[in-house]
Amino acid sequence: MDERETLTWETYGVAVRELAQQVADAGFVPDVVLGIARGGLIPAGSIAYALDCKNLFTMNVEFYTGVGTTLDVPTMLPPYLDASELDDTRVLIVDDVADSGRTLEMVDAFVRGHVAEARTAVIYEKPRSVVKGDFVWKHTDKWINFPWSTLPAITDRSGVRDA
Ligand code: 5GP
C-alpha cells in the first residue's frame, strides 16, 4: 500500500471543482475567498474562479518545515493581513490540507471577530485535525504529495530572507 497520497494536476482540477460545487450546493456565497499561503493560495484561486468571486485575499502562514516536522506554532509571515479589511464579510477560508488543523484554527480565530461569517474549505482533511472543515474533498491520514510542491524547486534560495 502507498505510504503517500499523491494528487496529480489532473485530479487537482477535478477536486477544486467538486469542492466549489459543495460550497455552492450549501448556498454559501462568499464575499471574500481567503487563501492560506502558500499551499492554500492555489486552490483558493481556482475556487474563487469557480464561484465567480473576485475578492481574493491571502494570509501567509508557515508551520511545516519538512515531512512531519513543524515550528512550535503556526506563524504569520509578511505581508500581514489587516483583518479589519474583512469587516462584516462572508469569508471562505481555503487551504490545501487540514492536518493538525492548527493553521486553519489560527486563521479562523484571527478573522472571527471581524467577519459576518467564516467557513473553511480544504482539499484534504486528516482524522487528527482539531478543526473540522465545512467543505472537504477527501479524507486521508497519509502524507500528501501536492503537484505544486512535489518536484524540487528550480532555483536554490537558501539563505535568501523570506524565501
Ligand atoms: P496543519 O496546521 O493543519 O497541521 O498544516 C498546515 C499546512 O502544513 C498545510 O496547509 C500544508 O501546507 C502543510 N502540510 C500539512 N500536512 C501536509 C501533507 O500531508 N503534505 C504536504 N505537502 N503539506 C502538508
TrEMBL record:
Q: Give UniProt keywords alphabetically.
A: Glycosyltransferase, Transferase
Q: Name the CDD domains on file.
A: PRTases_typeI
The chain positions of domain Phosphoribosyltransferase read: 14-150
Q: Which domain of life is it from?
A: Bacteria
Question: Which molecular function terms from Gene Ontology are attached?
Answer: glycosyltransferase activity
Question: Is-annotated flag, keyword Glycosyltransferase?
Answer: yes
Pfam families, per this entry? Pribosyltran
What's the protein here called? Phosphoribosyltransferase
